[in-house]
Sequence to fold (288 residues):
Amino acid sequence: MLLRPVRDTADDADAVQAVTAASFGGSRVLAGVGWPPEQVARLRGRARYLARTDPGGCWLAEDPVGGPVGVALSLKREFLWGLSLLAVVPAAQGKGVGAALLARAMGYGRGCLRGLVCGTRHPIAARVYRRAGFTLHPAMCLKGVVDPARLDAPDGAVHEGTPRHRDLMDSVDRRTRGGAHGPDHEELLGGCRLFVADDLAGSGYCYLDGGKVELLAATSRRLATRLLTAALLAVPEGGAARVPHLTADQQWALDVGLAAGLELSNSGYLCLRGMRPPAPYVPSDAFL
Fold:
């Protein structure tokens, strides 16, 4: 097996997509089979973006005969390292491919004080992360159709965000998770709607991708509650809403989601090194 860096090319983006589709799609091993086109485009775009910003943290595992069998995408933002993706095709699972990819990606984050991974419920993934020294915090997900009549109006102003709010967002990031997202905000703004709150009560922001809360950070639970309420009220009528990766530290989010009529379920783990679950915070799958 050969490990090599992911390159910012269409071919490598296709390889990342194919491995991920095989890993998370069961028997649907062909790239993109059963996946919405926008999901395929988003994953390919993420692979190329991280290959540009973090070339030392993105790796493909290749079999001399079978081609790509695994991928790890990771990033460093100030003093925080995050794993954006770890996927291994079924035929190569349980053979050390994932552990080797994770070790190479974690080597890129050597010197970072904190580590963050949004882990799945897959037992092999949980074992790999725990053996790598991560603390596993059981996570929950809110999903369903929002009932606006059950939600109180936000308790203060929430504004439409723009790129000029980047300094504010980076400041909130440092306070909540110990590292700014930096260039990730530009990438998120390309596909998400941004909500910002900034007043005497504090500061915060929330990205909404269709009906999914992609990322939320605030300096207080009150601000986080306001932002999440505004985001859920902005989900198109009848559309599916989703708020993932919630730990027991995010009771404020559970209160908002349950009040809105969303259903709560278990959904993997938030895997952490050198930090407690960031709060009030809802991490992003791709950008942590």
